[in-house]
Amino acid sequence: MPALPWQIAIRTVLSLPAILLSAGAMNAPKTHWEIVGELTEACTCAVPCSCNFGQGPSPRHYCHSLFAVDIEKGHYGRVRLDGLHLAGAHGKKGDVWFIDAGATPEQAAALQAIAHHMQGPRRGKVYFDRAVITQIVGEKSNELKVGGWGGFEADYIMGMDRTHPVVVENNTSWNIPRSIKTKTKTLHYADPYGNKIDANGSNGNQGRFDWTDETKTYF
What we know:
Blueprint: H1 5-23, E1 33-43, E2 65-76, E3 79-80, E4 85-91, E5 94-100, H2 105-119, E6 126-131, E7 133-137, E8 141-146, E9 150-156, E10 167-169, E11 178-190, E12 196-198, E13 203-212
Parallel strand pairs: 5-6
Antiparallel strand pairs: 1-2, 1-13, 2-3, 2-4, 4-5, 7-8, 8-9, 9-11, 10-11, 11-12, 11-13
Helix pairs in contact: 1-2
């Protein structure tokens, strides 16, 4: 889908701080931040994703994912981030971070700085865009929509009692204490950077996070 003029403008605006942050990271003063809320994620691996248990991807040689965090409470320095979302896609052609379209310029810059920090030393290209992010966490299912780029719907995998979902504690690829295991009904995503994700019936995770600039690992 061709980009609209406002999308091109937003990408240009968001790309500039990204370059400045990278170039000045060594000299920039450290800003304390913390975000707390719900993580919603799905990937291309079969259920259960072997990456969640310290192994390589399965059944394919790659694990491409789409996720979002619903920030119930958060701040970057003095910038409040309550009620905002930050989404991401890890694909073959690079990582794409989506800044909540409802964020003010100051909040958008803060979210991008947090994304840069969480990105860490991951190799490959990194892109930034803005999108309307819809993240729904239900009692037995979850859903994520990232603008017109795509999203997924998933059901929680229920345990033997058919009442409570299967929960994994302290998994190895997402820093959430308790992860509800999910199985996607639909998972479709495509962006202009060349990433495409299409994997129905695949793995997913739902859980609470509490991350700061001092957190050692995010994913």
